[in-house]
Amino acid sequence: MASKRPAGHGDGPQSTTKYQKVSGREHVLLRPDMYVGATSPLMSENTIIDDNGNLQTKHVMVAPAFLQCFEEILMNAADRVSAAHESGSTTVCRTKTIMVEVSPHKISIFNDGDGLFTGVLEEHGNIRAPELVFGHLLSSSNYDDSIERLNSGRQGVGSKAANIFSTTFTVETACAQTGEKYRQTFEGNMATINAPIVKKFSGKPYTKITYAPDFARFGMEKITPDIEGILRRRCYEVSCTSYDPLKVLFNGTKVPVTKIDHYAALYVPDAASRFSAVVNERWRVSVGITNNGFRQTSFCNGTATLDGGTHVNYIVDPLVKHLLSYYRKKFRAPAIKPSVIKDCLTVIVSAFIVNPVYRSQCKNYLSSAPDKFGSTCTIPDSLFNKLVKSGLTAAVESHLKSKEKKVLNATDGRKSSKVSVANLHDAAKAGTRDSSKCILFVCEGNSALTMLLSGLKSSDRDHCGCFPLKGKLLNIRDASAAQIAANAEITNLKKILGLQQGKTYDDTKSRKELRYGNVVLVVDADTDGTYLY
To answer: Do 342 and 415 reside in the same domain of the chain?
Structure first.
């Protein structure tokens, strides 16, 4: 019997209709994950800032694509700061204010920097520049990589994708160069491009984007308070990671965070447990102490790199290496792993990278090689010195003890009537209710064991046990947890006696938990046996 071919393969009539060619707009709608991420809402852990300015970690149901669309428009506004800085022109109006208004069904983002050029572009079909920028995919002013840019825009997709995932999208801008005010509305996921309204204008330039997200495509009904908290957090982050000082308002309230240390204080309120530094004009770093494992919060040119990237590794790896060297010497523990140090740190990195390269359009991870950053950053010694003099040392020590305890706990003994240890001649009553009456004789080697056994009567064996040691017993005073756990003689003694890590046996009640009530060391009458004492 001939096997069937999968549907769509072969030379039947269906093969003439299975191929499709779609427009750029249709492709964005069909494959949103390539442009803005998943459009299905996901319940995931998010950091939000509530109405009172408090930072919380909550599980929020939201479509990643919705958040990415907001990010694209917000960063368009923030990019006007670095763009003005890069131009070096004294006539450029630098962005000083960004205002974000969020209601349950609509979002607007305003910036007071240089407005978009509103002139007609003959080479692009006589449309005006704002329509090209916001209404035509793959249009951008960022394609010339010979120019060093410190903005977030790269592909000529972001703002258009936000337009495509909106039911209405209005661009309003005032251009000082043309003396015009421009307003244009796109509708139906950018399917309808209404004619722009252009008027003469002599006031201050600005740009304002107002859009209504297509909630149906996002599987959402509206912007909930928790989702609003995520958007508010991004405004806090833009305020403290801007290249130049920037005033950011969210729903009419000025964002109180303007420096990286202000933002770090939301994560690590204790000033004695966090250390921040503006290393140079392109690098800002804050390092805090935590007991909850390593956490990174990072930004590249203001964009939130949620998964970190090479800029985070560039800061964290040398810092951990430096701290590791210090603590290996301090605790005489050469086996300390970098993860022990890293797990005690929470790090915030804000970097301005020349022409950054990301893993995807969503820009969650920076991939640029450090030699392409366009700048360098060395953590100042003062920050390192403050770290080692702070609670980090106690945190590392606690972390080490916790890991050591886990390793040593694995070798614990317990009160049991039977244990399996090579060469142990166990007392018959060991581990029973009469265990407190039992004596364990510990001797040096099998020859001493033979002597001991020859001196015991059969009735003595009920309460007397014997165990020979091999070689010189490990001195645990300077030994690491790994060395102790790997030492057969020590672990055997723990099993035989029923000893448990961290417990003290200094009273009658606690000693009843052991398999033996007494230990007798049987050694030669010379200095060789003193190591047992």
So the answer is: no
Most distant pair of Cα atoms in the chain: their distance: 115
Tokens at 385, concatenated = 């010195």
Domain interval for residue 291: 259-409
Per-residue pLDDT tens over the stretch 69-91: 999 999 989 887 766 555 554 44
**Residues 455 and 420: beta-carbon distance below 8 Å:** no
Which residues touch 181 (CB under 8 Å, ≥6 apart)? 118, 172, 173, 174, 175, 198, 199, 200, 201
Which CATH number characterizes residue 291's domain?
A: 3.30.230.10
Residue that is last in its domain, among 383, 409, 435: 409
Strands 120-121 and 106-111: unpaired
- Please identify which residue in the block is written with the tokens 């142990």: 424
Kindly state whether residues 237 and 296 are assigned to the same domain.
no
In a domain, 15, yes or no: no
Where residue 128 falls (left for φ over 0; alpha for ψ -120 to 50; beta otherwise) is beta
Strands (E), 63-105: 97-103
Q: How far apart (Å, rounded) are the C-alpha atoms in residues 98 and 248?
A: 5
Backbone φ and ψ for 264, nearest 5 degrees, come out as -60, -30
Average pLDDT over residues 44-50: 95
Lowest average pLDDT, out of 273-277, 326-330, 344-348, 366-370, goes to 326-330
Confidence tier at 391 by pLDDT (50, 70, 90):
confident
